[in-house]
Design goal:
2 domains; alpha+beta
Length: 402
């Protein structure tokens, strides 16, 4: 143990004498560490944001999709096709034992405009009245749909949409244009999530709700894009999936619908994100290889330049493993310093993104541990050849070369 400590001490002393070279050789690992840590941290932040948005719907929800989602498969037949879901399916699902409420959702498309101010990012949703009981909302102004208003051209907008269209002015009682038709605003919902969130523009606070009853009057029997099913509090949504699927299967083909819990949807999204994140991380890891080669090159040059030092150490009794340990430790310390510098820069970059952008990266302990282990691994792997070359030096030849 004392021998290892003395050899590591000699390695640190040697690096301190060659600070400029040490910093330059560690630069490649620093750049690679920054790229990898930022990618992983941003991906984790996005996952946390998505989870928060989905959990905002509630825990006892089933979602009926107008296409098939097979577990373990990325292929989804009819995902971009027409929806075969109709209002009659909603009525049948209301009769399933254990189902508490059912609400149809239709993506009405288009944009929303208040005079000259238009917001094309606002999602226009035609929702059944039960939707606001499935997902209770807090109102900033006005009221929600009632049986008296569900068949009129009225709308309820989220707080993000309201601020984009009206700023600080009150919105209730005013008129907006949706798909060329005028709608009276009867309510404004209050935001639950951080409005600076990366997904605030895609959240339920950047939505304009119009009554499904009114849409049905003007368009006949519209195709439904989602059916939201709320189960009784004492029932597990997973346990009710089979009954809901069986009810829909009495009219639809298996490829025309699927029933998912919120956990299922999150797993699907995270699987797609995981594939993309690891693909980008793999590409970025090429920079780690380049950084490791840089460390190996510098260390090989150092072995040739320090032939006299190696010869003297061996002449006074240093063993093969002492020289090997010293040079391997130098390579690992160089790589670790590069990783630490990358971690520090990444932490500053993540804090800056939190303050100045909607992105909320998340640096966790497992990311820090990954940074340390990868840095040490790169240093150990690419430091083997220089350490072996140094350890194999013949002291007489080494002294003569100097």
């Amino acid at each position: 143990m004392g021998s290892i400590r003395s050899n590591v001490g000699a390695a640190l002393s040697s690096l301190s004498e060659q600070r400029s070279r040490a910093l330059l050789s560690a630069l490649g690992v620093t750049v690679a560490s920054i790229a990898i840590i930022l990618l992983i941290s941003i991906a984790k932040g996005v996952q946390k944001d998505l989870t928060s948005q989905v959990n905002d719907l509630g825990v006892n929800i089933l979602v009926v999709l107008p296409f098939r989602v097979e577990e373990g498969s990325m292929f989804m037949p009819n995902a971009a096709g027409l929806s075969y879901l109709r209002e009659s399916d909603v009525e049948r699902l209301r009769a399933v034992p254990g189902v508490r409420r059912v609400a149809p959702l239709v993506f009405a498309g288009g944009g929303i405009r208040n005079g000259e101010r238009e917001n094309s990012s606002t999602l226009i949703l035609a929702a059944g009245g039960d939707w606001f009981r499935i997902r209770p909302v807090k109102l900033r102004e006005g009221d929600l749909f009632t049986p008296e208003t569900e068949n009129r051209p009225v709308c309820v907008i989220g707080s993000v949409a309201k601020e984009n269209l009206f700023g600080a002015d009150p919105a209730v009682g005013k008129s907006v244009t949706i798909n060329g038709a005028d709608y009276e605003i009867i309510g404004v919902t209050e935001e639950r999530q951080d409005k600076d969130s990366m997904f605030s523009m895609m959240s339920f606070e950047n939505v304009a709700y119009i009554p499904f009853g009114w849409l049905k009057q003007v368009s006949g029997d519209p195709q439904l894009h989602r059916i939201m099913v709320q189960v009784e509090p004492d029932r597990e949504p997973e346990a009710l999936k089979a009954a809901v699927e069986s009810t829909l299967g009495s009219r639809l083909d298996r490829a025309q619908y699927s029933v998912q819990t919120l956990g299922d949807l999150l797993k699907l999204v995270f699987k797609l994100m995981g594939i993309l994140t690891w693909l980008l991380t793999g590409l970025t890891s090429i920079a780690l290889f380049v950084g490791g080669v840089g460390i190996m090159t510098v260390m090989l040059m150092s072995v040739n330049e320090r032939a006299k030092e190696i010869g003297i150490r061996k002449t006074v009794g240093a063993r093969w493993r002492d020289v090997f340990t010293q040079f391997l430790a130098e390579a690992m310390v160089l790589s670790l310093l590069g990783g630490l510098a990358g971690l520090a820069v990444s932490w500053v970059a993540c804090r800056a993104m939190e303050v100045y952008t909607p992105i909320k990266p998340l640096i966790e302990w497992d990311t820090i541990a990954l940074c340390f282990s990868v840095s040490l691994g790169i240093g150990g792997f690419f430091g083997l050849l220089p350490a072996l070359n140094a350890a194999r030096q013949d002291p007489v030849v080494a002294l003569r070369r100097e």
